[in-house]
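U., I forgot to send this yesterday:
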Amino acid sequence: MSLFINSNNLRTALKAVSKAMDKKDDIPSRSYFYIQRDEEREDVINVVGGGSLFTIRCDIPATIEDVDKPFLLHPSALKYIEKLNDDDELRIDIIQQELAPTIKITSASGEATFVGYLTDEYPTSSIPSALGGVNIRAISADLKRIIEFTDEKSEISLLSNIRVLIEGGEINIAATTGVSAARIKRDIDTSIDLQFLIPKRVAQFIVETGKAFSLNEDERFITLTEEEGNCTIMFRKVIGKFPNVDGIIPHYDNVVMVYTEQFKSALERMSIINTATVDITINQDSIIISCQDAVNNNMKEVLSRQDGELADYGGMKIRLSLSQLRSIAKIIASEKIAIEFLDAGRAVLFKEWNDSSAKYITMPYKID
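Result:
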């Protein structure tokens, strides 16, 4: 059993599907590359990688000779193929042995053999039909901004995934770590209503590729299919109703504005010393950002206030997470940041001064 394939095409496919694989998993189906002949197209193979969260399938051209059964390829094959010359014509032979087959890769440079398995069909051959009018590339920039507000290590799905709600011609993207949250709302040209969760690693893959994906669904899976049809992402649909993030986003009358670059630079300098929090003191004409670490290193910066509406809150101090503030400052694209607040014990809202579609909130720490 043999197939012939371009090294660039195989390298690109293996690198893409490796994003979904659980590299530390001992189960071959989650840590090996799965390769099969395409069911519908001649001279096309499906390269698949999948783990506990999601699966990626890439379809690439190949000349196929008697490859009737799918096989698993050891993950170290990717490192070998990355070292080969561009546009090498590779020959892959599946050599049957008594215990397990060997996968032999032959190039102009030489040859290498890897452990492999013959296996049954992988569950990605059936792709649901597309939902018209939902283009994921249109929201990839928003996904990039909101990824920071997920906790991938959490076992709670609402903390480790990004919630997407499509309803009434709007798309509402939200995420929360439990102590901070983000919500971005946009108009979208579609008549469908749908709610689902996107795993953080799926969102990262979409952002990295920068390609257009159409949205598909069936009873069990959400599927994203690349516009050119060469790449498919599939993840399990989480059934149920999710909390309304809009319901926890506050609206306060007290608003101050500061220049984004000044705010971001001040926070970066604060991160030099070993501190988890910073204090923001709000005065009538300025905002003071200060911090102190365990060995009494201190830092203070004064930023001038830019516009906004402010009651008599002179000298009020709010203690916030430095890492959360840095995440917020990093994704604010406007010249100024608008900060809304009520008192030192309630959530603080950050948004772009000229765009209310994206809102970021974080909870304060108690000041002794």
